[in-house]
Structure formats: C-alpha cells, structure tokens
Write a structure and sequence with these properties.
The protein is about 40% helix and about 25% strand. It is of the alpha/beta class. The protein folds into four domains: about 45-130; about 130-225, Roll (Ubiquitin-like (UB roll)), CATH 3.10.20; about 230-325, Beta Barrel (Elongation Factor Tu (Ef-tu), domain 3), CATH 2.40.30; about 335-450, Rossmann fold, CATH 3.40.50.80. The strands form four sheets. It has a six-stranded antiparallel β-sheet, covered by helices on one side. α3 (about 45-90) packs antiparallel against α4 (about 95-110) and α3 packs antiparallel against α5. The protein starts with a helix and ends in a 5-residue tail after the last strand. The protein binds FE2/S2 (inorganic) cluster. FE2/S2 (inorganic) cluster binds near residues 164 and 173.
Length: about 450
C-alpha cells in the first residue's frame, strides 16, 4: 500500500490522472465494496440448506456407483461371451480378439480421461454445494443463487427484469410459482398468500432462497411499459469529479425501496427546495440500490450548480421514474454497436453494463465520439472493459473524424448488427442516415437524444 500524496511529493512530475492501472484498481475496489455491501444483507448458507444440497449429491453418488457396478457386470459378461464366441466360431476369433484389445485399451485410457475431467467435475460439485441454479419459465433465463441469498436479489444481480415492488415481503409483487425443486423461507413476510396459492406452489421470491436447483414460473418485465413509475428518496453516497466538466453522482436507495428500471432509461431528480432535472441513469439495473448519474457542468442550471458547489454526502434526493424507451432488445442475439456522442455516453454505459451482465450477444463494439480528448471522461473505464472482456471492443473517435467511417471500415455486414446511438439530435440523424446508406436495417437502429447538459 502506498500513499499517493507521499508519492506526489517525491515525484512531483508523476501524473495519476491518466493511469489506467489506478482506474482499474478503483474499479476493483468499487466492485469489492459492492459485494461487501451486498454481503451484509445476505445470510450465509445455513446448515439446513447445506445438508439438503449434500444429500442430493450423495443420492446422485449412490446412483452413479450402482450404475458403474451394473456396467462392470455387463462388461464381464461381454468378455466371457466374446471368448465363448471366439472358441465356438474359429473364423471370428481374430476379429473378436481385436475387439477385446480395443475394449481393454479404452478402459485403460479412462484413468487419463478422469485426470483431465476431475478439476471440472470437482468445481461443479463445489458450485452445487454453495449455489443453486434457478430456471425461469417461460423466458428460459437461468441464474445462480449463492449462499442463502433471496431468489429475487440473485435474479436482479444477474441482470433480469423480474417483477417486484418492496423487496421486503409487503407488496406480493414478486410472487412466483415453484415448478420443481426445493425452496426455503429466509425471512417472514407481511404479505399473506392464500391457502390455495400455497397449495399451487406460489411463494415470494424476495423472502425465499433456493435450497436445490429449482424451476419457477415468474413474471419478468417484457418491456419498459411494464415497469411502473416509482417515487422514492435516495442518499448521496459520493459525488466526485472525473475532470473539470463532469461530476459523477452516486446515490443509494433504501433497501426496502429500490428503483426498478431498465438500462438506458432516465429519471427525474429533485433536490428538495432547490431544483430538479431529468437525467439518464448511467449504472446497470442489476445493482438497483446504487444509482449513478453523470452531471455535465455545461448544463448551467440550478440543479447542476448545486451538484458542483454544494452537494454533500448523505443529502437526500427525490427520484421519480423511470422514463424512456431507449432499452436493450435482448430477444435477438445480434452483435451490438453502441455509438455515443459526447454525453450520450451516459445511457450507453448503462446499456453496455446490462448487456455484459446478461451476456446477450456474441460481440459488442463501443464508439465514443467527442470533440476533444477531455470529452472521453471514462476512457480508462472503457479500456478496462476492453482488457477484461474478449467480446468487447472500444474505439474512441476524437475531433473531426467521422464515426460512421470508422464503423464502416471495422464491420463488413452492417445488416447483421443492432445499433444503439445516443447524443445530440443532429449527430444522431446524420449517423442514422449514413448507417442506412451503408446497408444497416432501419428497425435495428435505436436512438436516444441526449443534448449537452442533459
Ligand atoms: S417484492 Fe414486495 S413482497 Fe416481494
């Protein structure tokens, strides 16, 4: 551990602002603290859950052992029948001996195969003890529930738009139906399920964990119209400058009143008795308690002035939303090209993080077009994604360079791609026309107007 203040004193010429390693370190710390925050609210796997999972594995082990002993018997019988056949029909003896030699060779090679597969099987077995898999019907989505986390919490962390309201057992909006497997209540809830519902297998995903692998029938928001407008208050967790023009505002919602939204949407933010504005959410809905906003100084309004001059940690900000239709179309697995013009990066960042969490596509390419290098206020974050994910490419486009020329020279079959473009209206229109000229399909171009300072 080194103190950067001391390092600066010893090496006054050192520049830390543009150091991707430091930013990557920040990201690791942020992720780790996020996990830590989540951990404080989750219950480690209890004895009952562990015992149930180990029981299932031991049943499978017994079954596998029985099958192996049956196959051993069959193999011994096969050997003696082949020997008998070879002695009864001498003409076949050469072929039969060759067959026996091949069989013995295959059996000898089992030891090598075991050695190769052992680590994978061992890892899978451990995973099945510490986590249970959830299969959602009818979407077919799957995710893991670790320890004794709630099924709802795990599904949201996996980036799914599961139905819910209070996260706390009061509203009943997270009701789902158990199709197979075993669940366990992790907290008592005020919402009352009728006897008939209980008999039919209904339960609350916010108040139960998965003991074994389960299949459940649960509703997910199919599109933005299925998510209601919510009103809640959140605390300022941190406000930090990334450069002289952009300040990152991190808000934290109460555990029992989170914001349900889809990536790419916006909300109205209101500082009581001061000002209000509408901003896109820059973070992923998979972390619905921690919301990020990018504030552009050039907006020059009361809200922005307050954020840059007076905002304090733990101050309360009212949120109303979500709003907007610039959301991910996850049904089709086309490769995605994201194009952000300047501050249009905000909704694009949310979509990107969501797409990466959901693993919805084979390939993602981000183009960030800005007037000057200073506009790439999260350049190192984008480079870190590029380093961390094989299927993610990043191309910054600075100054007069044409972003569509860059897209066109990097991608040969534009009709195969989905495009998400955000930024000022004029630039979006120009980009859209150019893409269509180069063969992109109109229905696969999704746009969002983000003017400077909004
Ligand atoms: S989300 Fe309200 S009861 Fe589960």
């Amino acid at each position: 551990m080194v103190d950067l203040g001391e390092v600066s004193q010893i090496y006054p010429a050192a520049s830390f602002e543009d150091n991707s390693l430091l930013e990557r370190l920040d990201r690791i710390i942020e992720n780790a603290s996020l996990r830590a925050r989540n951990r404080t609210t989750t219950i480690p796997p209890d004895m009952e859950t562990l015992a149930a999972r180990v029981n299932i594995l031991s049943d499978e082990l017994v079954e596998a052992k029985l099958e192996i002993s049956i196959f051993h018997n069959i193999f011994d019988k096969l050997k003696s029948r082949l020997n008998k056949l070879a002695s009864e029909i001498p003409q076949t003896s050469k072929t039969i001996h060759e067959l026996q030699a091949w069989l013995l060779e295959e059996i000898d090679s089992i030891a090598d195969k075991k050695f190769v597969q052992y680590p994978l099987v061992a890892a899978d077995t451990i995973l099945r003890i510490v986590a249970a898999q959830v299969h959602l019907v009818p979407s077919g989505h799957e995710f893991f529930v670790e320890g004794s986390d709630s099924i709802l919490e795990s599904g949201l962390s996996a980036g799914l738009a599961l139905n819910y309201g209070c996260s706390n057992g009061n509203c009943g909006k997270c009701k789902a139906k158990l199709i197979s497997g075993e669940i366990k209540k992790i907290r008592s809830h005020d919402y009352v399920l009728s006897e008939k519902e209980k008999l039919q297998g209904y339960f609350l995903t916010c108040s139960n964990t998965a003991v074994t692998d389960i299949a459940i029938e649960a509703e997910e928001a199919g599109n933005e119209n299925e998510i209601p407008v919510q009103q809640l208050s959140a605390w300022v967790r941190k406000a930090s400058d990334v450069n002289e023009n952009v300040r990152i505002l991190n808000l934290k919602t109460p555990r029992t009143q989170r914001l349900r939204f889809l990536a790419g949407q916006a909300v109205k933010l209101e500082i009581p008795d001061v000002a209000s504005t509408t901003l896109h959410i820059a973070s992923c809905p998979c972390d619905d308690m921690n919301l990020q906003f990018h504030i552009d100084r050039s907006a020059a309004n009361d809200f922005t002035d307050y954020i840059f001059s007076e905002i304090k940690t733990n101050e309360l900000i009212n949120i109303e939303g979500p709003r907007g239709h610039f959301v991910l179309h996850e049904d089709e697995p086309n490769p995605i090209i994201f194009i952000a013009f300047g501050g249009g990066f905000t909704p694009i960042k949310s979509l990107l993080e969501h797409a990466m969490t959901l693993d919805v596509t084979e390939h993602i390419h981000l183009y960030w077009s800005v007037a000057g290098e200073n506009g790439l206020y999260m350049h190192n974050q984008c480079r870190s994604w590029h380093d961390a994910f094989d299927r993610f490419d990043y191309t910054p486009v600075i100054g007069d360079k044409n972003v569509i020329s860059a897209v066109n020279s990097n991608h040969k079959n534009l009709p195969d791609y989905h495009f998400y473009i955000a930024g000022p209206e004029q630039q979006i229109n120009a980009a859209k026309s150019a893409l269509l000229e180069h063969g992109a399909i109109p229905d696969t171009i999704f746009t969002e107007i983000v003017e400077p300072g909004n």
